[in-house]
């Protein structure tokens, strides 16, 4: 009886806090991210706009640094910069940390400059977290399936392209991206 009650409560807690899931198919395989609308509503809404309009398709992971992260969403497979919506407010103070397998928004030096580029942390990157002296990078979800596919990115050789370092020699391209219905 007690085991059943605990299991039921765990399922209820999971379903209450479970956010939308997005499957990302790449030429290396697929992975699924679960988004946290509760703690990062602005960031999740922004990310889903790009998912829903299909503009992440044919974009590439253009910056891959082993032991750090893989960044993508901003350039197509031919390295043309993709159009952006208005920048969003930085939600890095939401209590979510840049831990391994989390997805966060990339930005410039301006904390409120994130548009479409995102990154997935290969490891815990505490120095990217919000603090009183650091505006941080807003985490808005985590990879819940296929993190091994993301980790494969770190095994690919990189080069410099148009002044940008750590660009995979063979482009890692998003071939399909869609919300997962359960």
UniProtKB/TrEMBL annotation:
Q: Name one Pfam family in it.
A: Pro_isomerase
Q: Where is the signal peptide?
A: 1-18
Q: Which domain of life is it from?
A: Bacteria
Top-level class of the enzyme under EC nomenclature: isomerase
Domain (PPIase cyclophilin-type) spans 25-179
Q: What is its EC number?
A: 5.2.1.8
Q: Which UniProt keywords apply?
A: Isomerase, Rotamase, Signal
Q: Which PANTHER family match?
A: PEPTIDYL-PROLYL CIS-TRANS ISOMERASE CYP38, CHLOROPLASTIC
Similarity section? Belongs to the cyclophilin-type PPIase family.
What is the recorded name of this protein?
A: Peptidyl-prolyl cis-trans isomerase
Which source organism does the UniProt entry give?
Vibrio thalassae
